[in-house]
Each structure stands twice: as C-alpha cells, then as structure tokens.
Amino acid sequence: MLFSSFKIGDTNYTNRIAMAPMTRSRTSQPGDVPNDIMATYYKQRANAGLVVTEGAPISAVGRGYSMTPGIYTQDHIDGWKKVTQAIHEEGGKVFIQLWHVGRRSHSTISGEQPVAPSAIKVPDQVFGPLPEGGFGMIETETPREMSLEDIQNTIADFVQAARNAVEAGFDGVEIHAAHGYLFDTFMRLESNQRQDQYGGSQENRMRFMLETLQVVADEIGSDKVAVRVSPHVIEGFADEDPEIVEVILKALEKMAPMNLAYVHFSERISRYVEVPELFRKQVREVYPNPLMIAGKLTKESAQELLEKEYCNFVAFGTPYVTNPDLVARFENNWPLAEFDADARLTLYGGDEKGYIDYPEYAI
Questions:
Q1: How far is CA 151 from the centre of its chain?
Q2: pTM to 2 decimals?
Q3: What residues pair up with 226 in beta bridges, in sequence order?
C-alpha cells in the first residue's frame, strides 16, 4: 500500500509516503525569506506523495526559532513560490505547516514577549541568538496570558496565512497543534489555567483549535486544511497530561464533519509514551476521514499501519534528511543512508552541507 495512489477532494497523491515537517533554519536574512537553496532541498524530495514543509510562523509573535521561513509578508510569499514551483515541476504535492509556537519562544527571536493561554513557563530551550553572537539553544521566556482579543487576532492571522499560502502555490496547509506549541498548550491542564470560554472544561480547552480549523477551512476549502496533534508526546511540558487523549478523541469527533484533508499524529519524538493499539482503534471509531502518522517509522511498521487501516499516509522525517530519494529506496529495497552524528550537526542552520548534498542511491 505504500506506493498506491490516494485522492483527497480533487487532489491525487501518487503514494502514501509523506515527508514530515522538519525545522532546518536555512532562510535568507533579513526577513526570514525562503530561498533558492530551500527550493532545491524540497525539489530533491518531491518524490513523496505529499511534502509537508517545515513550520512557517504565521506572525512575528508566533515565531520561536530563528531563521525559520515565515508566511506573513509578501517577501515570504514570493520566496515560497520558488519552493512550490520546484515541487510541482517534479509532479509533487505540498502543504505548508502553519506555526504559532506560543510560549516556546523568547523576545530576542520574536521581538515581543511570547504569548500563551496562561502566564506559565516550564524549563525549555529553543534555537535563537546567543549573547556572545551566532545562534544556538537559548532558554525560553515567561509568556503573557492571551486576551480574548489576542485569540481573535491570532485566528485572523491563521486565516491570512492560509490565504498567503494559496497565493504562494501550496496545495494546502497543515495547522501545527502539537509539541507544546500554542494550540497544544490550550488543550492541556498544566498550561491552561484560564477561567473563560477557552479554559476549564475539555470543550473549552479545544475550542481555540477547532474555531481556527473551521474558519481556515471556510476560507480556502476543507480539503486543503489539515492539523497536526501529538497526544502521546510530552515535549514542552513538565508532565504527562491525564486528559489529553480524551480531549483529542472528543476533538476528532467535532472535526469529522469538517472533512479536513487529514489529521496528522506526531509520535515517538522527544519525550513521549508509546501509543497503545487501543487508541488507534478508538480514533477510527470516531474519525472516518484521512489520517497521517509520523514517528520513527520503518518501511515495515509503516506498511503495517496502512494495512490495518489506522492511517492513510505515513510520514518520515529524518530519513528524508539523508535520503532525498526515499521512495525509490523503499520501492527497490535499497539501503538507507543513516541519520548520524554528522547529520545532526547540520540539522539546524548552515549552508548546502548536510542540506542539499546528500546523493541519491548509486546502483
């Protein structure tokens, strides 16, 4: 099933293998603008049935990592056009991941104090400017609690970012609601201590994400809108959340009538708990629409997930760093180039080395 085609709305995807979103921090400065080297990087990997780009901040305050490509200025739009054109020339399809990091930021990166459901900080680090110069991992800053006006402005920012994405030539957008970023912190008890309509009950805590998905779907079409969640990942939090799985299952029930392009489960990254098979069955009981799963998959484990109909797409992250021809390697049972210590050194930031210089398999 890995190599079978799949249709969502009017869009046909040539295989079930997706390139997962991965921060690479290679934009042109000033302005964090997508560039030619990024177009080459994505073009090399357009063999995926679907490419999901690295996270693109929807606004300055939504930015939490330096040198990541935005989607909120005309320069960003024009830069991304190079990327979408390069992918489409290879026959590929591409969604842009729309990103608001919430509290996982620092004012030296975003230009203002980070925002969150509540003014709560946990020990955390993000990629930003170092006091001595250059870039590296820096401690996050205590956020301020979002006002109701902030929330509505952020929803509007997501809508505008989706419009910008369509102008830039993307086939769709994936809203990032995982990994301790903005929407994830609204859904979890530890980070959301609000007493208004966006806090307290499970329904209130999922409200921000659901409202955003609905208005973005209304704006550009539901078959062009996806969302990424990570109920079994603890990244960005001090402890596991006792209700997050239940919250996500309830949210999926409410998302089902939206007929989104897909829901993307991010798993087995950073700090996490293993996903029980019971959860996958529960998901399928409440959510009949397309699903994507990512998280240290192998060709064999991915095939099993597809065969059991637990998902419709399987996404690969770091294997796509060192194997631009990943689909061909899987299809022909060629060995994979390892994601090793050298690859980790060039993951965040740098130049062509460790970015577009990985070769295809030599027969």
A1: 20
A2: 0.97
A3: 174, 262
